[in-house]
C-alpha cells in the first residue's frame, strides 16, 4: 500500500484527456508559454520589451526641440504648442535621435524608457 502515511491511500494518477476541451486548452496554453520562452531565449539575455517614448505634457514648455529633432516621433499640438508623441515605439534607427531629443528637452518632459 503506497500513500502519504499509514492509513492514507495513494491518490490516483491524474492524466490529461485530449478529448476534454479544458485539458486541450490547458495543453495549448502550456505550448504557447513554451514557445514564448523559447523565443525569449533565442533573442538573448539583452533582449527587452520595445523601448517606449513617454511625454509629460504638464511639464512641457512648448520649446519644440523634440519636434525639430525627430519629427517622425514628436509633434506639437496646434492649440497649445505642447508635445504630442506620434510614435511611442519608434523603430530602432530613430532611437539615437530620440535619446538626443530627450537630452535637449529644456523641461525634461519627455523620456525614453529602455529595458
Provide a concise account of the structure shown.
The chain is an alpha+beta fold and 115 residues long.
Compile the SSE list and pairings.
Elements: H1 21-43, E1 52-55, H2 65-69, E2 74-76, E3 83-85, H3 95-104, E4 110-113
Antiparallel strand pairs: 1-4, 2-3
Explain the overall architecture.
The chain is of the alpha+beta class and 115 residues long. It has two domains: 18-47; 52-113, 2-Layer Sandwich (Alpha-Beta Plaits). It is 33% helix and 12% strand. It is built from three helices and four strands, in the order αβαββαβ. The chain has helices spanning 21-43, 65-69, 95-104, and strands at 52-55, 74-76, 83-85, 110-113. The strands form two sheets. Strands 1-4 form a two-stranded antiparallel ribbon. A two-stranded antiparallel sheet has the order 2-3. A hairpin with a 6-residue loop joins β2 and β3. The protein is elongated. 11% of the residues are buried. The model is unreliable at 40-47 (pLDDT under 50).
Amino acid at each position: 500500500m503506497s500513500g502519504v502515511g499509514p492509513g492514507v491511500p495513494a491518490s490516483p494518477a491524474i492524466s490529461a484527456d485530449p478529448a476534454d476541451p479544458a485539458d486541450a486548452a490547458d495543453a495549448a496554453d502550456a505550448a504557447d508559454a513554451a514557445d514564448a520562452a523559447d523565443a525569449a531565449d533565442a533573442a538573448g539575455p539583452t533582449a527587452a520589451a520595445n523601448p517606449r517614448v513617454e511625454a509629460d505634457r504638464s511639464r512641457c514648455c512648448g520649446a519644440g526641440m523634440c519636434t525639430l529633432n525627430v519629427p517622425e516621433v514628436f509633434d506639437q499640438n496646434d492649440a497649445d504648442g505642447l508635445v504630442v508623441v506620434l510614435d511611442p515605439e519608434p523603430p530602432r534607427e530613430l532611437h539615437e535621435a530620440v535619446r538626443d531629443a530627450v537630452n535637449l528637452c529644456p523641461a525634461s518632459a519627455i523620456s525614453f524608457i529602455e529595458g
